[in-house]
């Protein structure tokens, strides 16, 4: 079942490799079929080079395997929390991409410094608080999802489709799994350029007007009709 | 019409990709036929991988489409201001290239620090002032062109064929569209090396004599006759 | 003899090149057959591009050539000290990889800053003390091994499978030669990301709980059964 | 004449491209036949992609073209000064390679920080003083050679086969043109790693004992007999 979604999720996982986002073998993309409430995700511990579309694992929103003989990615519990709480998202990506992970390790959100940022993220890409010992020692991946949701209590995940998990790495999401991959690519580039920008000028910032203008303009003014 | 210029502009847009200057899909090259006053530019929202020479859009200097069924690049208004104000230029390029964009986001001009810089740019590559809320909320791309022209009030665009737009990214130009691409490549390299140079020695600078010598020498002493 | 190990050690040396870890021609991988106590290592001074499995040199643990007409790598004495002292390791790698070598040159250990680090290294990747003039002027490679072992007097080499030799470069090891290569790849990425993380936030650190959790979790919870 | 040397010099110029050292089209390798006192150098202004062995220009040590219809590289006067003053060298390379050029622009020599450095350069890779206005306004390339020679008045060019020309870029040399290319590759890597090392630890340095040990060891202890 969900053969088309499996194909998309498979391709998204391959795209992560092709865009250089898979570091130290870490890189998981998933997608959801909102109608059935079923999630398709990469199997665990199998190198990207060896996966096939039919290896994708089908889960329900509570983590039970509905189809497939392989174990789902160990990151699945985080993805599931996000699908349950962020009602509009259709895909999730997690990597150790080499620039975004540094901001996550530093425990710092990435401030908006230019239109390259605001075409994808409406404001700072936030970083979660550090997790407590209790949270880590129960179900780490599940608690990771919860701490992300907590961080978005006053933020709109549809306008800021990504987060940095403290001392861990980035997650992105989007309308579908391909969009989540595009946001992971954008996050990586934004993370790289913010790093360099703040070295050139530690006081760099952009005004709210440009932030508003550019984010809301993007989907309105560009492209063919 | 302008089939040869369309071919050149097409190739220039592909060259931007081949030189790694297209970041987050942003990268537009255009060229002008000064005799007819017509501008050829990449269509909007179509990935570089899919464009063909015949997709290039022909505009007059006031933005009206003279040929082509596709929308011109959303950046066209900026290009048009530059063509109207900088009378000698034949091509314009805009990207989010990964080093020059950082200087733009930092709001800092790139100082000349060595002969690699002065072979292409006679002095600092300037950064525009931040735009006002009013400028942003009217026609952002048109105002972007105006703020560039304002910044060059006392500078010679033929000697400094590039600029950084504050919180946005770089524009370069040249005698023709290929020359504008070459200047975009040079700007990127100069931006990278200035970043590193000023980390090694924050007080680095070059004397006016070497700046003069090398810039004016370039087109005189080198190459085959 | 040891044809299978020669093939593995050969492949590991090629893998170092393919992963970009061979800088300035430096890059040596070796493996040990614990039953016979024989070590297989790359020959000295022959470019990686030209070696074949049959060129691998077989040594005993005291450095005598047991098979092969070529000289063993000049780094062999260091490898042999590690095999003699770290009883569980099956492979060793030494490179001048471009990020880890910088930490070695800086004389600084790499602190654990995120789960990317702790999936491979349980705590700081230590740096040795500087060697004395006497140590350098006797047998440099042998003394290099001894100073590594000294540094691990209160550390567990099975939990921290790598080290930075002061003013020199990194060594990694593992259960077999392929595992040593994987740890060299991980060390390089960790070194790169720690460099950037501490620029973003000089006070970055991770708590002991996350360190424990993630290191011990890795081999338990992930992968297919 | 000198067909074999032309072939070597041609190949060396191509190697500069293949190793990523040609930045902004700048990259010239030359070689000398000490018996005849003739120098073979890349022609000027022709892209590396288009040169052929037969295009190499033959000059005498005073700059007169002995063979070839093309103009010699504009950098030839610098090469000739080095060949006249550094009696043992057989090849010279000049580039704008992206790390060494930053140290040159910063006006800073590259200190020895590890064995990767001292395997190629016995001590700091020096930077020349800034040139005077007079020097620049007479024959820039010739004066560039003279300022390099001045910098080596108390240094041994056979032990330190490279230099940074202030506000300009690196030159390297060697026993032959291929060796000069190898030293250009090494200089680039050393420049990159010193940059990063001094960010990690601004007080990094290496002792004289290790410097001596490693430099003089290199050609004695390694390789096959």
TrEMBL record, chains A, B, C, D:
One of its GO terms (biological process) is pentose catabolic process. Its EC number is 5.1.3.4. Its cofactor is Zn(2+). GO terms for molecular function: aldehyde-lyase activity; L-ribulose-phosphate 4-epimerase activity; metal ion binding. One of its GO terms (cellular component) is cytosol. Belongs to the aldolase class II family. AraD/FucA subfamily. This is L-ribulose-5-phosphate 4-epimerase. It comes from Mariniphaga sediminis. The lineage of its organism: Bacteria, Pseudomonadati, Bacteroidota, Bacteroidia, Marinilabiliales.
């Amino acid at each position: 079942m969900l053969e088309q979604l499996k194909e998309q999720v498979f391709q998204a996982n391959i795209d992560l490799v092709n865009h250089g986002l898979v570091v130290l073998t870490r890189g998981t993309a998933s997608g959801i079929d909102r109608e059935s409430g079923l999630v398709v995700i990469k199997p665990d511990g199998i190198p990207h080079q060896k996966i096939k579309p039919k290896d994708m694992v089908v889960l329900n929103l509570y983590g039970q395997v509905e189809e497939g003989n392989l174990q789902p990615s160990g990151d699945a519990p985080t993805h599931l929390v996000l699908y349950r709480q962020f009602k509009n998202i259709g895909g999730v990506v997690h990597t150790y991409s080499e620039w975004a992970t540094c901001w996550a390790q530093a425990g710092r959100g990435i401030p908006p410094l230019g239109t390259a940022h605001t075409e994808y993220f409406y404001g700072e890409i936030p970083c979660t608080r550090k997790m407590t010992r209790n949270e880590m020692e129960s179900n780490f991946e599940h608690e990771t999802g919860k701490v992300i949701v907590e961080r978005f209590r006053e933020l709109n995940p549809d306008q800021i489709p990504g987060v940095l998990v403290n001392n861990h790495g980035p997650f992105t999401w989007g309308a579908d799994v391909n969009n989540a991959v595009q946001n992971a690519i954008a996050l990586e580039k934004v993370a790289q350029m913010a790093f360099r920008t703040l070295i050139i000028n530690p006081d760099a910032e952009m005004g709210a007007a440009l932030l508003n203008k550019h984010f809301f303009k993007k989907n309105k003014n560009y492209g063919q009709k």
